[in-house]
Every structure is written in structure tokens, then in C-alpha cells.
Write a structure and sequence with these properties.
The protein has two helices and 37 strands. The chain is mainly beta and 503 residues long. Strands 9, 11, 12, 13 and 15 form a five-stranded antiparallel β-sheet that branches. Strands 18, 20, 21, 22 and 24 form a five-stranded antiparallel β-sheet that branches.
């Protein structure tokens, strides 16, 4: 095979990779082409980064890694998580100097999965646990998911904190951060690559853009992580902030750790890309306070219809029928105990003109001194399949939302990390509703297990998983949304055209 032919093949593969994400979840347009549908093939390589879990000396953290069994995946391959260069809160290196120490860390993975279909777990404790950088290829890559879950018994941010380790990217939106005196919010930036990344952090409050004390951005060295304390970027105290992470050079993983002195804390994952309509799934039925934070990065204001997808259909919260979001300004609305004892998800749609918006919910459970906080960012649909790791040792609730049409969905509980057989159940979620289900459990479970969610119909489905663990009367909980696990990539069929060789 000559070099020109190889270049053509490489170009076709690259084009397929670029267009795949849009092909997975975008609705079909009327009058679409009669070309054959793109084939969905397993991805062959995946990267994930996990932020440093806690600055608390009494933090206990568990990691769960899982790859679902995927038809057509390669027969070989491996996956591993390794420690990134440890960084202190002020951004200075916390590791010992010397090449021998770095080499030793690089040679010993923190976690190494054994086989797809069976979770692998690890744990750590204290404030010195570093961020992790992971890669998977071959049979371990399709749908590879890692959950980081931390329990903090007391102090700022006490409670249950959880985050899905994320794929590195070049842009992230975080509506729901804060710089008030009772909040300690960090944006964690992790660079998995061999060259430095240059990152800008932009803050938007209720009055618009906030001037940063670090206008030249941050340099994140190769294979390292930095937690940036948001209150060091501005003197303004803002209850509701939207954080925009924009990578000028390279790529990073990003997540915001939002810690409160009184009402616990959790990880705020990046919201879905700006869009005219948004779904925020999985508000706990016993939520005592729900706050909606929204931001539009465009030049036009956005007017949104606010509805709750309940078990009985779409309803409009009294007093919060619409939300006006001014261009470039963060807007918030208190929805109170909006779910009123029933499962619920928030659905935002334009009242007239569609304007791209990002949004998230801050959710509080409990009352008085026994309150806990979690966040729900707007998320993308499940698509072909979504995966949730770490579903044992705590109460686990799966929330499914079908905003536009009835969806049938298959939910599979994997084998346990220490034993047990997979179990699959099928559910029907009616149009405009949210259904909370107790997650299925593997037969003969030992250890922890994972869930895969696979819609069997074409209508969009949104999902979230809530972990709960009450301790000392405090209802600790954390919520992770479940967009596509990106295990499959759409590759369009192509015919050989030798005429391009003559041009």
C-alpha cells in the first residue's frame, strides 16, 4: 500500500472521529439524505483525568473503574490510572524533587483494571492524594468510566462528594460556583499531555464579566494538576458565578470543587455545551431547596420556560414559570422544594427565540445544621449508552427522564468487583416524565458494581445517579449526570474514489 493511499485512509478516519459526537445524539433532519446510516464502532483509545479529591486530612476516597463489555471491541488492550504531579492549593509543587521519585511514581499505576464487565476499586485517605491521569486502549477503551467518591466527616464541605473522571478538552462552563465568605471553591485543572497547557479562567457574576487578578492565564505543566482558589481571582463576593475555562494551548480536564462552611459541598461538573433547550435530571424527591443558575454567553438575552418533569408529566413551578437571562450575566432563581416529595427533573426551553444557555442546579437536602449540598449541571442525552460506576455500600437511585417522547430503556447491573452475576431489567419512561428507580443489583453481589443504561428507542433519554449515605443525621449525597459514555463512534460508510489521486 503506497503512502498516498495511507494518507487517504488516515484522513477518512480523522473525519469520522471529528463528526462522530454530533452523529451520536443529534436529531434527524426532515428530508435527510438517503445515504446509509453510519456504522457505530467501538472506540480504540480513551483518556480520563480525576481531580485531587480533598484538602481535608479526614477525607476517605474510593475509586471505581469500569469498562462495559462492548460487542466488536478489540481482544487486547489495557487501562491504568497514574498519579499526576502533586500540587498544593497555592499551585506550588508538593512532590519531592528528583528524577528518581518521578520515575518511581510513573512506573506504579494507582489502579489497573483486569477485565471489561467487572469493576476494579482502590482507595486512599487524607489531604495528600494527588490527581490521577488515566489511559485505556483496546477492549478497555469503549465506555471506560471512573468514579471518584469522597467522604468528609466534618469541616468545610463535610458530607459525600462524588465526580466522574472526565475526558480532557479545551472548553468548560461551570454555572453555580461562588466566592462568598462561606464558600471555598476551587477549579481543578489537570494536564494529561506531554506539553504544557495554557488556560484562561473567566468569571461572570450578576453584573457581567469580572476582572481577574490573573489576566495572563495559568500554565499547567505536563502530567500535572493545579487547584485554583476562585476567591484569589477577584475581590468581589458573588453568590452565583459562572466559570468559563478556556484552553489557549493544549487540553486539560476541569472540575469545580464547591465547599460550604454550613451546608456541605460537592463537585460541580461541567455543564453541557450552550444550547437553546436544556435538561437537568435527577432532583431528589426530598430536596428541601433547589436553586437554578443560568448564563448565556451570546449577545442576546434568553427567555426560558421552566418546567418540572414529574412522574405524572410536565408541570410549571408556581412563581417560576419563566426565567429571563441577560446576555453575559449570571442569573439565579430559587425554586424551593420544587419536587414536593416526587421524582423530578428540570426542563428549560425557549419561550420564543432560541438562545444558547448553560445552566446548573444547586440542590440541598436536610434542614438546619444537618444540610448537605450537591449539584446537577445540564447534561447531554444518554445516546446509545451511558455508564455509572460505584453503586455499592450506599443507597443508589437512578433517575430517568424522557422530555419529549416515551422511551424504553434497558438497565444492566454489572458483575460485582468481588463476585456476583449481571442482572438486566427493562423500564418504560413515559413522555414528559421522570422515573426514579432503585438500581438493579447483581445476583450474589460482593463488592461494588456498575450500571449501564441503554435506550431501545430513538427518543432522547436523560439520566442521573444519586448516591446517598446518612451519617450523624446528615443526609450525605452526591449526584452524577449520565451522558453518553462515548464507547461507540459513528463511522460513515465511504467508497474508494481514485480520481482524487489525479488532482
Amino acid at each position: 500500500m503506497n503512502r498516498t493511499t495511507l494518507s487517504l485512509i488516515a484522513g477518512t478516519t480523522a473525519l469520522a472521529a471529528v463528526t462522530a459526537f454530533a452523529a451520536l445524539d443529534s436529531p434527524s433532519a426532515s428530508g435527510a439524505s438517503t445515504a446509509k446510516a453510519a456504522a457505530e464502532l467501538p472506540v480504540e483509545r480513551a483518556s480520563l483525568v480525576c481531580p485531587a479529591p480533598s484538602l481535608s486530612d479526614i477525607a476517605d476516597t474510593s475509586y471505581t473503574s469500569f469498562t462495559p463489555v462492548t460487542k466488536g471491541a478489540a481482544s487486547g488492550g489495557k487501562a491504568e490510572l497514574q498519579a499526576a504531579t502533586e500540587q498544593s492549593a497555592d499551585g506550588t509543587s508538593g512532590t519531592k524533587t528528583g528524577k528518581d521519585t518521578s520515575k518511581k511514581k510513573a512506573e506504579k499505576p494507582v489502579l489497573t483494571p483486569k477485565e471489561p464487565g467487572t469493576p476494579v476499586t482502590g482507595d486512599t485517605s487524607g489531604a495528600d492524594a494527588p490527581a490521577l491521569i488515566g489511559t485505556a486502549d483496546g477492549k478497555f477503551a469503549p465506555g471506560w468510566t471512573v468514579q471518584e467518591t469522597t467522604e468528609v466527616a466534618a469541616g468545610t464541605g463535610r458530607g459525600l462528594q462524588g465526580v466522574n473522571c472526565t475526558a480532557p478538552d479545551t472548553e468548560f462552563w461551570f454555572p453555580g460556583a461562588s466566592t462568598t465568605t462561606d464558600r471555598t471553591d476551587y477549579v481543578h485543572l489537570t494536564n494529561p499531555d506531554d506539553s504544557a497547557a495554557v488556560v484562561d479562567i473567566e468569571l461572570y457574576g450578576k453584573g457581567g464579566a469580572i476582572k481577574s487578578t490573573v489576566p495572563d492565564g495559568f500554565t499547567i505543566p505536563p502530567h500535572s494538576s493545579k487547584p485554583i482558589l476562585l476567591s484569589t481571582l477577584t475581590d468581589e463576593q458573588q453568590t452565583d458565578l459562572t466559570v468559563h475555562v478556556n484552553v489557549r494551548s493544549g487540553r486539560v480536564g476541569a472540575a469545580v470543587q464547591a465547599l460550604d462552611d454550613k451546608v456541605g459541598g460537592d463537585w460541580l461538573a461541567a455543564a453541557a455545551d450552550p444550547a437553546g433547550s436544556l435538561v437537568l435530571p435527577g432532583i431528589p424527591k426530598d430536596a428541601t431547596d433547589v436553586r437554578l443558575i443560568a448564563f448565556t454567553p451570546g449577545d442576546a438575552d434568553a427567555d426560558l420556560k421552566v418546567r418540572l418533569a414529574s412522574p405524572d408529566g410536565l408541570i410549571t413551578p408556581a412563581g417560576n414559570e419563566t426565567l429571563h437571562v441577560k446576555s453575559g450575566m449570571t442569573t439565579a432563581a430559587d425554586l424551593g422544594a420544587v419536587t414536593r416529595g416526587e421524582a423530578g427533573s428540570l426542563v428549560l426551553t425557549p419561550t420564543d427565540q432560541s438562545v444558547p444557555v448553560v445552566a446548573a442546579l444547586r440542590v440541598i437536602r436536610g434542614k438546619g445544621a444537618k444540610q448537605e449540598t450537591a449539584f446537577i449541571p445540564a447534561t447531554a442525552p444518554v445516546g446509545t449508552r451511558a455508564t455509572s460506576a460505584d453503586n455499592s455500600g450506599r443507597s443508589s437511585t437512578l433517575s430517568l427522564t424522557a422530555p419529549t417522547a416515551t422511551v424504553t430503556v434497558k438497565v444492566t447491573a454489572s458483575a460485582g468487583s468481588e463476585g456476583g452475576s449481571p442482572v438486566t431489567k427493562t423500564y418504560t419512561v413515559k413522555s414528559g416524565t421522570t422515573q426514579d428507580i432503585s438500581a438493579p443489583v447483581p445476583s450474589g453481589l460482593k463488592g461494588t458494581y456498575a450500571l449501564t443504561v441503554e435506550p431501545t428507542s430513538d427518543a432522547p433519554l436523560y439520566a442521573a445517579r444519586t448516591l446517598s449515605a446518612t451519617e450523624s443525621g446528615i443526609p450525605g449525597f452526591t449526584i452524577q449526570t449520565l451522558p453518553s459514555d462515548r464507547g461507540l463512534v459513528a463511522v460513515p460508510e465511504a467508497d474508494e474514489d481514485l480520481s482524487v489521486l489525479q488532482k
